[in-house]
Amino acid sequence: MTGQRTQEPLLRRVRKAWVSYLFLLPYASVFLAFTVLPVIMSLWNSFTYNNLLEPARFVGFSNYVRMFTQDASFLQAVKNTFVIALVTGPGGYLLSLFLAWLINGMTRPLRTLFVLIFYAPTMSSAIYSIWGILFSSDEYGYINGFLMSLNLIREPVSWLLDEQYILTVVIICVLWTSMGAGFLSFVAGLRSIDKQYYEAASVDGIRSRWQELWFITLPMMKPQLLFGAIMSITSSFSVHEVTMVLAGFPSTNNAALTVVNHLYDYGYLRFELGYASAIATVLFLTMMGANKLVNLLLRRVGK
């Protein structure tokens, strides 16, 4: 009887709003089928040995123990991924916000032009090839040619082969291509703020653009700030293709190896799906923790 009493209000609400749930059903079905179910299957596979040729065999936490105690390449990938994420995540986020704020006061034609210029590098992965030409390891590379013309170096530098420089070049390239959906959301958020708020703030004593940014703009852009942060974290932890295009796979002494590269290696080349799923689970939990931390920090904006 107690269970029926607790279920009755919920069932009554469902019956009253059945049309709303009917409209939600298509999206909910797709979300469950292509997001929730794959995550659950990946989590289950992380506790198995699965090579696609024989039935999956439950092995408990063996994949996780192997990952953190026996796989030196994974630890190197974690180190590289965190270096890239710590630089390109906050760097790309702040750079996107600053540039969006900077071009917000321009005329519409100029603003549209600069949005296109900043967003264009994210529209095609082929753009990475430009960086391969710029940092080519021979004397025909533009960076080497420029430095040699200034007599700053005497012989070409192997930017994409020397482990001393590979990760730096990758970080620069990722920063250059970080003006993605987060940047567009910042531009849209800035345009949606009514100018009356700034006029009222000027009456209350706010004089500089920095004061306007901190006391008006940022507090009113919290949804866009949160979306941009999620996109920035996701992109910084999922760096994969740029390292393969620039540094090759594998890179010299795994200098540019990321967690997604490692996952790709075991999932698509070695077909060790259980171990690849364990790597994906660790990456997923890390990204969820980072998103939670950023969400807590953004709540303090404007307080």
Give a brief outline of the structure.
This protein is mostly helical.
Summarize the structure in words.
- The protein is mostly helical and 303 residues long.
- The protein is 70% helix and 1% strand.
- It is built from 15 helices and 2 strands.
- It has helices at 2-16, 18-45, 62-69, 72-103, 108-119, 128-134, 142-149, 166-176, 181-191, 195-203, 209-220, 222-237, 241-247, 259-269, 273-298, and strands spanning 48-49, 57-58.
- Strands 1-2 form a two-stranded antiparallel ribbon.
- A hairpin with a 7-residue loop joins strand 1 and strand 2.
- Helix 4 (72-103) runs parallel beside helix 8, helix 4 (72-103) crosses helix 14 (259-269) and helix 8 crosses helix 13 (241-247).
- The protein is flat, with a radius of gyration of 24 Å.
Overall SS class: mainly alpha
State mean pLDDT (0 to 100 scale): 85
Main sheet summary? 2 strands, antiparallel
Large-scale geometry? flat
- Going across the major beta sheet, what is the strand order? 1-2
- Note the total helix count: 15
**Unreliable stretches:** 1-6
Helix content: over 70%
- Measured between the Cα atoms of the first and last residue, the distance is 47 Å
What is the strand content?
A: under 5%
Q: How many beta strands in the DSSP annotation?
A: 2
Helix-strand pattern: HHEEHHHHHHHHHHHHH
Radius of gyration: 24 Å
